[in-house]
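Hey all, quick one. A colleague (J.T.) asked me to put the flavin-adenine dinucleotide job into the tracker so the inputs and the structure tokens live in one place instead of scattered across chat threads. No bug as far as I know, just bookkeeping. Sequence used:
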Amino acid sequence: MTPPASGQVQPIVVIGGGFAGLSSALAFSRLHPRPPVVLIEPRDRFVFVPLLYELMSGELKGWEVAPDYASLLQGRGISHLQDRASSIDLDARSVTTASGRALQYSQLVLATGAQPEDFGIPGVRDNALNFHTLSDLQPLQERLQELRRRPSGTSNLVIAGAGATGVELACKLMDLLNGAATVQVVELGDQILPRSKAFNREQAEISLKKRGVTIHLNTRVDSVSATSVSLSGPQGSYQQNHDGLIWTAGSRPTIPDISPKLELHQGRLPVRESLRLKAYPDVLALGDIAVNPKADELSGWPHSAQAAIQQGQFAAKELKAKLQGRDANTFVFKDLGEMLSLGIGDASITGLGLTLSGPLAFKLRRLTYLTRLPGLSLGLRAAGAWLVGP
Ligand SMILES: Cc1cc2nc3c(=O)[nH]c(=O)nc-3n(C[C@H](O)[C@H](O)[C@H](O)COP(=O)(O)OP(=O)(O)OC[C@H]3O[C@@H](n4cnc5c(N)ncnc54)[C@H](O)[C@@H]3O)c2cc1C
């Protein structure tokens, strides 16, 4: 679709088609009357990142985990501009894209998400593999294939970070490697999954132990080379050989160039409880790039797909209130629980009124994600595939 030509009603411009941006664009398209919406997103596919593990293992197919925007946006009156927003002029209410296009907006939604953060640790950028998006899968899958060709037990994968991504990945990799290599997880803190629910942490510990994953707690990555990693831990500094190091130890928001410069809070864009910028109320910031400066870590909303979807849906309510001249709404995050993928056919769930682990939790996790997938018609096709799956 082509974006509206100049002279037409200025559209709502959404920058970033991830969980927050896509959910907001879809919610705007359900308003009556339907406002013109332009979604600026460089990729041609939406990526359902919580299911990347299943895509890597072959348990799910690409079309289920990464449906294309053309299908998701079909018939919804949303123009997809496949481009990258390179700069935003808040006073002029305009966005310039990498290809040199300039767009005026009536309302702007900033939802550009996050990217891996290496904290400047030498060698991470050049030598580590990532597990953050679709394009990270191929190098990882190629590495796994190579390790499977080597004599059993001679190779070692290291995962930096024992948050949800590191732990879920470790379980899945052990199942996929099936003894071809060992997996070690290095964590700076004194426990795995520091932000997870206690039941899920216990289940994860059991799953990691059962699979023989070695965990190094209180251990810092000092540098990474192509074949080894320098670590400092309770027993001092040492070198560990690796046949692949996967970096899951941090992420930072991807904020486009904005003028005038905005003051950040904890590296993110501070927003009011209405998710609007304080000085520019015609701009909403959603998802991983936004933070409530008044909340602490416990009372603030998490940086998760769950929160991003809820914020996307909230944005449409907020716009409606504004159009009707009502006061701004307050975004309240509703915790729907936490689900972890813990290896092939295994998962752990805390929430939805239950605690559950094992194969049933695995099926429920897939079904639950299905209901959260933006774009219902495609979601229903995915449901069919999952329900008849193993
Ligand atoms: C491996 C992995 C597993 C995860 N598992 C879970 C989970 O189980 N549950 C959960 O709740 N959360 C999970 N998360 C976190 C969750 O994915 C993020 O919190 C969520 O994606 C944030 O949504 P967002 O819309 O802010 O950003 P994203 O979903 O990252 O979307 C940002 C979009 O902006 C686009 N973009 C970036 N820059 C520009 C630009 N300049 N112009 C235009 N577009 C741009 C990007 O291409 C991208 O499509 C996981 C994350 C990872 C990496």
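Adding what we noticed when we looked at it: Confidence is low (pLDDT under 50) at residues 376-390. The domain at 12-42+82-113+254-335 is CATH 3.50.50.60 (FAD/NAD(P)-binding domain).
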